[in-house]
TrEMBL record:
UniProt entry keywords in alphabetical sequence: Phosphopantetheine, Phosphoprotein
Organism: Streptomyces sioyaensis
Pfam families for the chain: PP-binding (PF00550)
Coiled coil: none
Name of protein: Acyl carrier protein
Span of domain Carrier: 1-78
Amino acid sequence: MWDQKFEDLLRGFLPFLGADEPLAQDTALRDLGLDSLGIVELLAALEHTYQVRFQDDALSQATFETPGVLWKVLSGLVEDQAA
C-alpha cells in the first residue's frame, strides 16, 4: 500500500471522493473526478513532493488510471532515485 503523504495529496485532486470514503487501489481516478488538467497538476505536485521526475514513457493515461498503478510507478521512481 502507499504512504499517507501520497493519499493526502491524491485526495486533493479527487473531488468526487468523500472525505470519509476509502480510496481503493483499483478505483478509476477519472470516476473520482481526475481530469486532464488535474493530471498535469497532480504530476507536478508528485514530482515536487517526492523529488522525482516522471520519464516520458510514464506520462500516459495508463499511469493515472488507478491509485495502485500510480503508486507503483511513483514508488519505482523513488526507489530508482535512492539507488
